[in-house]
Amino acid sequence: MNTPTLETVRLRLRKFEDGDLPALHRILSDEEVNRFLPWFPMKSMEETGKFYEQRYRAVYARPRGYAYAICLKTDDIPIGYIQVGTEEPYDLGYGLRREFWRQGLASEAAGALVAQVKKDGLPYITATHDRDNPGSGGVMRGIGMKYCYSYEEQWQPKNIPVIFRMYQLNLDGNDRRMYRGYWEKYSHHFVEEF
Q1: What CA–CA distance (Å, rounded) separates 5 from 7?
Q2: How crowded is residue 160: how many other Cβ atoms within 10 Å of its Cβ?
Q3: What's the mean pLDDT when you consider all of the chain?
Q4: % helix / strand / coil in the chain, to the nearest 5?
Q5: How far apart are CA 102 and CA 107, in angstroms?
Q6: Does the global pTM surpass 0.85?
């Protein structure tokens, strides 16, 4: 499996392992951490175990995947997660325990992952964030992503309307490329001035 461990000044990005389930549950069960994520907070270790099987073990079974535990180098215990899809739209996603917010850790992890996927030949990455979660947009801009457009989606399984802002970073020098999948899929789309 080609999921190389990545290191930054403060962080180690590595595969999740079976022994990480309690740490993963701590992240996924926190209501505030999961407020802007597409799933409901996990209510049990059994739910977290199923999530781990579907979201991580399945990725690790593929020839290439980018699904990481974000760990501090000091103890190697997961405090968050970060991933990039290996197919269009090459979506970047991340989450971090709230006591580690506003310390630049998500940006640090994202920067390391972007460097790896660029090295591996991904042409671009996208990322979306809820308009009500501007901090996530700050992470995206911090790693060089550019805002492209916004769209409204009836978000499932939460079944709530959400305005998402879509960002993109072209990694192969083709600065004219823009992923239009969300624009075409959702009829309520627009470009914001902010």
Answers
A1: 7
A2: 10
A3: 94
A4: 30, 30, 40
A5: 10
A6: yes
